[in-house]
Amino acid sequence: MTGPATSPNTLELGQAITQWLAFMQDVRGCAATTILAYTRDMKQFKGWYDDNSEGVVMIGHITTDDLRSFLAWVYKRSAPTTVARKMSTLRSFFDYMGELFEFPNPAKLLQSPKVRPKLPMVLSEGDADRLMEFPHEGTPLDLRDLALLELLYSSGLRVGEAAALDVGAIDFEDRTVLVMGKGSKERVVPVGIPALEAMKRYLEEGRPHLLKGKGTQALFLNTRGGRMNQRSMRMVTERRARQAGIISRVHPHVLRHSFATHLLDGDADLRSVQEMLGHASLATTQRYTHVTVQRLLEVYHRCHPHADEEDKI
């Protein structure tokens, strides 16, 4: 193992990537899923660069044209959104390198591809009600799944946040849930009465049967008495939606989208929704305003008698 590099011309690309990922995880506190995405992006970039260069690559040798060639290669194989994400990863990486060394940032001149914003899928209020009425017989798994779905829709939690919850996170008196969000930031989110009722029944009648004598404090348990993971929660959401007769594919993030959209439809202010969702930027929350505008337009064109008539001058 060599000592620390003193210039960009003596720091090998692979070592620089490892160093940057450690910084983003340990210092910036990025979520595990973000670190995984960064790792994949940079692994692909390094692989492409190794295939198109001779010898060991030092970060000081990488040019803007190199980055453009890589992104053009990605563009032929992926959607514009993927190109934009990889460009963002490269910018973050070279911004970090720029803080260590004074050298021209090759990612600074990159121009992001124009990406048409994709509106998030949301359930109608009727479909949300139908989902909570999926056929069940009150078994421990039925009670668990209902409590999970009610909580996801009632509080807009990310699936990873729901999977990480412990029993003590639910405050039945204050009607709130304490959530550990991205970047290890805690937030308190309101919980609706139907969710609290479903949660109480699950804790009293369902969870003890799933616990199987184990001492875990995990809120949502699998059939072996361990903590339920994100993949299982996605499978539960999709299966229960099919049982409820909902044609669209429903995953936990759809319930988060629906939570935000239905709040805004009910005249909730954007800042409050941002706080409940745990968004660092208000711009992230604002995409839900586009959904509500789209729904207003759909209602208008469907219901107004002159909506589709051409203007007469």
Q: What is the number of independent domains?
A: 2
**Contiguous helical run count:** 12
The total count of strands amounts to 3
Secondary-structure element order, N to C: HHHHHHHEEEHHHHH
Please, could you describe this protein's structure?
- The chain has helices at 13-26, 32-51, 64-75, 80-100, 125-131, 140-155, 159-163, 193-211, 230-243, 252-265, 270-277, 282-303, and strands at residues 170-171, 176-180, 186-190.
- The termini are far apart.
- The longest helix has 22 residues, at 282-303.
- Strands 1-2-3 form a three-stranded antiparallel sheet.
- It is built from twelve helices and three strands.
- The chain folds into two domains: 13-100, DNA polymerase, domain 1, CATH 1.10.150; 125-302, Intergrase catalytic core (hpI Integrase, Chain A), CATH 1.10.443.
- It is globular and about 65 Å long.
- The mean pLDDT is 86.
- A hairpin with a 5-residue loop joins strand 2 and strand 3 (186-190).
- By secondary structure, it is mainly alpha-helical.
- Helix 1 (13-26) packs antiparallel against helix 2 and helix 6 (140-155) packs across helix 10.
- Helices cover 55% and strands 4% of the residues.
